[in-house]
Structures are given as structure tokens and as C-alpha cells.
Amino acid sequence: MKMDRIRYFLVGAMAVLGLSVAAQATPVVVLLNNVGSTFTNGIRQDNVANPYGTQPMPNITTTTDSASITFTPSSFFIVKANDSIGTDNWVNGSFSFMVTFPSAVNLTTSLVESGTYQNNSGTSQVTATVGVTALNSAETAKYNNVQDNFVVPSTSIITWNINNQFSPAFNNAYTTYLVAVDNVLEAVSMTSNTTTIDKKFFTITVSDGGGGGGVPEPSSLGVLATGSLALLARRRRA
């Protein structure tokens, strides 16, 4: 109840002083690179443009302490292998973005993706590597690797899903982070039958995992309240 009274007083004091009560700010996301590479039948191709789709993209949803980036993967994200002597083909889509929070946060990253695969007599694999760097700090990047192997032969199309969350163990909370993702689909054939894997959905969410900014502590609110009282008193005397 005491905290509620303090907050109520602060809002009223700001109104009396002519200060606007602004809505809570949300994180700002700046997309950087969106590039891919392929390896098909022994031939590698780099700098494939826009594997995660072309503008306007993607869908960015923000709250006061999180930002979710959802892509609709392009037709780039499908790989097939069909060779009786064994073929290992892959595609790799890379993208990065910078996210700035209104106050320092201990970043938590969640990765959700899905697609389909079909292995008649081969193997397919999904690998996601996420690197997080706290900008304007001395701390180095933290990495997380998620890998799913689909080795059970199936003549039908099967849906795969990956849902992973991790929190880089930074020593401090920061406002701005650089997040880089490498996402690989790999198909290996063992006979003349075809192995196929594709990606149909991809979203990454960065949020405050706790310990960052947020609502001021009671002591900070008390100091602000005292200062507001003093300003109000001075305004009345004037």
C-alpha cells in the first residue's frame, strides 16, 4: 500500500509540475545482415541474398521488456540430397540484429523454428548457432548451439520443431546487444533415394531475464518523492 501511495503521489506531482507521464518505452530493433551460403553436389556458393526473405520483413513485436522477430523463411531454406555414393548438401542462412532496451537487462534468448523432413535412407540435420555480444562493454560474445539430427528413415513427410532458450552468463546487465544467428539445414543421402529437409517458420525472442532495469527500488522512489515535494513547495511559494 505504501508503494502504491508513493507511485500515485509521483504521478500527481508530475502532473502538477507540468511533466507528461509518458508511456513505457519498448526495445528498439535494428536489422543488420541477411545473407546465406549453399553447398550442393560439391559446389559452394556464398553471399546468397535474403535467405530469410526480402523487405518488408520480418514481423517485429515488442513489449516493455522483450522483442520477438519472426521470419517467413524463403524457398532458400530447403536442401535435398540424392546420390548413390553419398552426398552431403547444406544451406546456411545468417542474420544479425542490434537490440536496445530502455534500461539495462540480463538478456535471455529464445529460438523457435520448425519445418519438415523426409529421409528414405539418409540423414538430415538442423543446427542453430546464436552469438550474443554486449555492446559498449569489455565482455566477449556468448554462444549457444542447438542441433537436432533426424536419422530415422521415413517415406512420409514429418514435421520437426526446435524450441530452445538460453541466458548468456554476462557479469553485468546492459542496454544494447548484438545478436547473430547461423542456421544450417543439412541433408545426407546414402542411396539413390532422396533426403529432404526444409524450414517453414523461424522466430527469435530476446527479453529481460531478470536483474536489469525496471521499476525503481523503494529507496529511489522515496528520493524522487522528496524531491518532488520540495519542487511543489517552491512552486507554491513562488
Could you describe the 3D structure shown?
Strand 1 and strand 2 form a beta hairpin. 25% of the residues are buried. The strands form two sheets. The chain has a six-stranded antiparallel beta sheet, with no helix packed on it. Strands 3, 4, 5, 7, 10 and 12 form a six-stranded antiparallel beta sheet that branches. Helix 1 runs parallel beside helix 2. The protein is elongated. It is built from two helices and twelve strands. Helices cover 15% and strands 53% of the residues. The N terminus and C terminus are likely disordered. The chain has one domain.
Quick recap:
By secondary structure, the protein is mainly beta. The protein has helices at 2-16, 218-237, and strands at 28-40, 43-49, 59-62, 66-71, 78-81, 87-105, 107-119, 122-134, 142-150, 158-166, 174-189, 195-208. The strands form two sheets. A six-stranded antiparallel sheet has the order 2-1-6-11-8-9, with no helix packed on it. Strands 3, 4, 5, 7, 10 and 12 form a six-stranded antiparallel sheet that branches.
Q: What is the fold's blueprint, element by element?
A:
Layout: H1 2-16, E1 28-40, E2 43-49, E3 59-62, E4 66-71, E5 78-81, E6 87-105, E7 107-119, E8 122-134, E9 142-150, E10 158-166, E11 174-189, E12 195-208, H2 218-237
Antiparallel strand pairs: 1-2, 1-6, 3-4, 4-12, 5-12, 6-11, 7-10, 7-12, 8-9, 8-11
